[in-house]
Amino acid sequence: MFNRCFLLFFVVTFVVSCGPEPKFNKEDLAEQEQAWAQMMEGHDVVMPLMNDLYQVSTQLKELAADAMVEASDFHPRAQEALANIEKAEDGMMEWMGGIKENPKDSVRARYEDHAAIMAFIDKEKTDIDQVAEDMRASISAAKALIQERTGN
């Protein structure tokens, strides 16, 4: 009985320890982790801008509504700025939705090699950097219109 248990334990241990090789070595995993963290730093920088977008959007909507009856070009420019704000917000939501659907482990399971994972992360970093640029530009344009209209 003891021999059978020992043999069974040995076989199970052997099978488990001889499982499939990991896809990625420690260096690859460390590089992936570092790149992922840098990408998420980009997200963390952009996230507070969502509040800024909301604030300037609210102010600009009020000013645009007031200017709608005037014979000036403020209203159409305000509408264009509001459309750019909405586009920037949509870009952020789309990016976050894509990352939520593609967490690190899912990306590692989907791609067979390290280079493909790094390319995925690099693309996502480029995308979030573009979202940041779009957000900053739309905030800046809206603030300029608000200042033009209010003097503040």
Averaged pLDDT: 87
Biggest sheet layout: none
Helix content: over 70%
The low-confidence parts are none
Terminal residue distance: 88 Å
Order of H and E elements: HHHHHH
Give the overall shape, derived from the CA principal axes.
rod-shaped
Question: How many strands appear in the DSSP assignment?
Answer: 0
- Computed Rg: 26 Å
Structural class determined from secondary elements: mainly alpha
Count up the helices: 6
Beta-strand residue percentage: under 5%
Structural commentary:
The mean pLDDT is 87. The chain is rod-shaped. Helix 2 (26-46) packs parallel to helix 6. The protein has helices at residues 2-17, 26-46, 49-67, 74-101, 104-110, 114-150. It is built from six helices and no strands. The longest helix is centred in the last third of the chain and has 37 residues, at 114-150. It has 152 residues and is mainly alpha-helical.
